[in-house]
Structure formats: structure tokens, C-alpha cells
Amino acid sequence: MSLRVADIGEKELVKYIIANSKEITADDTAVTQFSSTNLISTCDMLIQSRHFPENMSYFNMGFKAVTVNVSDLAAMGAEPLGFLLAIAIPKDLELESFKEIIDGVLSACDYYSIPLIGGDTNEASEIIISGTALGLCDEPLMMDNYSIGDVVAVTGDIGLAALGFELEDFNNIYVKKALKPLARINEGITLKNSGATSATDITDGLASELYQIKKNSFGFMIYEELLNISDEYKQYCKNLGLNYLDLVFHVGEDFELLFTIPKDKLKNLDIDYRVIGEVTDSDVVELTLENGFVEKIKNKGYEHYVSE
């Protein structure tokens, strides 16, 4: 029986595309020499039934469509240049709803200082938004330039959006994070200029991203106590019957940046960040629990095509 795409999943499909492309150098991102610098190009497609929670407003749908693309620029340390919008909508969608989506797109473009420069429209059975973000960067941050002893850090709290998807209180900080995530574009530029050795954005879960940037003979040790998971967070998870570490490591949608940097370069960072671990020579991705036990982190996260 022939293999189906569901048998290998999105990441293996992307690997195949990258292996057969001359320009794509990272997941969803291309680096093309352009004049005296590099053009950074990225594209992300969002489908209503897959990517937008039922309680997400049309405005936030549009805003998120820009955020997911700008987040890829942020992971490369690129300066935003322009945004292209392709949108397909049902013909019976209320005009006011369409306008709210576009208002969200334009608001996000203004927030990230990235002008909307073109796009396309079409008809579909549900809302589909595909964005393309362009940026410029002289020396892009890649995923695998780290060395043993570099620290592993994140630009903010992680797991908030994962919990927010499980809650209904719109005024809850976790729900706000889930419905209107923000890309760390300024932080990415700072990381590039401050000596970071690798970076990626956390979209599919911390565990998935750690494995995404892992290279042979290198590993990562993450420390639970450094994740600074609040008692409130743990209590919410307990009340919902959820494992808080599963949410932190295996869900994603935080759009924080995961990065590595030499310890002596930390003093150069004038952004909020949290060191959560270190690069090792173990060739495995591990977690030291608060009780001192060490366990291997499973390579599991959100992935298209793979059945639950």
C-alpha cells in the first residue's frame, strides 16, 4: 500500500520541499540574496475550521493572519518590508464580517509596521486566509548555529495560549493570548544583533520546536523550575483534568521566540526573556522535573495531516 500524507505528517512534507529547493533554508522561510542584503520570504495559510477557534472574532482572524507570517520574519531577525494577502470567503458571508477581517489585517499591518502591498480574493466554502510576509536581513538567524554550553531561552511565558483554548472567559489573560497572539518582531531583531546563535517561533509546541532545531550529536536540557509555571496555571489545568506540562510542551500557538545564545551574550539583551535550559552533548531532548527526576521529552506537537 502506498504511503499517504497522513502517514508522515506536515514536517516530513516540508523537509521534502526544502530538500528539493535551492532557496528555502528554514521551515516556511526563504532567504534570497537581494542587492547588498537578503530578502526573507514566508507564507502561511489559515483555514477557518482548523486554525480559528469558534469564539475568535473576524477582526482577530485577520490580525492572526498577519501575526503568523510576521512571526516567521521575527525568528530570522528580519525587518518587515511588505505583506501580501490572499483571502477566499463564502459568497454568503456577511459584508460586515468581511470588513472586520480586513480591519484586523490592516490593524496588524500597522502594529508591525508592515504595509499591505497586494493580494488576491476568491470564493470558498469557508474562510481561508493565506498571507505572505517579506522582510530584509543582512545576516538572518538560522536554527542550528548553537554550540554546547549555549543557554536555551524564550522571549516570554509559554503555554498560555494552550490553556486559553480550554477556557471561555474572554477577560482571562490565557484566552486573550489564544485569540490574539502577537509576533515578537522587535525581539527577533534584538536577538540577531545581540549574538543569538539560533531562533525559531513557538507555533507547534515547545517540544516540537526543540526537535525542529536539534542537530545530530547535540541535545537540550530543559528545567521545569526555570519555566516558571504559576500555581494558578497548574490549578486551572487540574480543574480541567489536564496535564500542565503537556500544554506547555505539546500544544503551541504562543508565538514567543525560542532561542539559543552564549551565556556571556545575555548581558547584551535589553528585552524580556527567560532562560529555560542549555545545549548539551547528550543527543537527546530532556526535562529535569522539579523533583529532580530527568525524563526524555517526546517529539510531539501540533501537525497538519496527522490524525489524532
Defining traits:
single chain; 308 residues; alpha+beta; seven-stranded mixed β-sheet; six-stranded mixed β-sheet; 13 strands; 34% helix; globular
Task: Describe it.
The protein has about 300 residues and is an alpha+beta fold. About 35% of the residues lie in helices and about 25% in strands. It has twelve helices and 13 strands. It has a seven-stranded mixed sheet with strand order 8-10-7-11-9-12-13, with helices on both faces. Strand 1 and strand 2 form a beta hairpin. The radius of gyration is 19 Å and the shape is globular. The C terminus is likely disordered.
Distance between the termini: 21 Å
Number of helices: 12
Main sheet record: 7 strands, mixed
Structural class: alpha+beta
Shape summary: globular
Strand segment count: 13
Mean pLDDT reading: 92
Write down the secondary-structure element order: HHEEEHHEHEEEHHHEHEHHHEEEE
* Beta-strand content bin: 25-35%
Main sheet: strand order = 8-10-7-11-9-12-13
Radius of gyration: 19 Å
Write the layout of secondary structure elements.
Blueprint: H1 5-8, H2 10-19, E1 24-26, E2 29-34, E3 37-47, H3 48-51, H4 58-76, E4 79-89, H5 95-111, E5 116-123, E6 128-137, E7 151-154, H6 160-164, H7 173-179, H8 185-193, E8 198-201, H9 206-213, E9 219-223, H10 224-227, H11 231-240, H12 244-250, E10 257-261, E11 274-280, E12 285-288, E13 294-296
Parallel strand pairs: 4-5, 9-12
Antiparallel strand pairs: 1-2, 2-3, 3-6, 4-6, 7-10, 7-11, 8-10, 9-11, 12-13
Helix pairs in contact: 4-5, 4-8
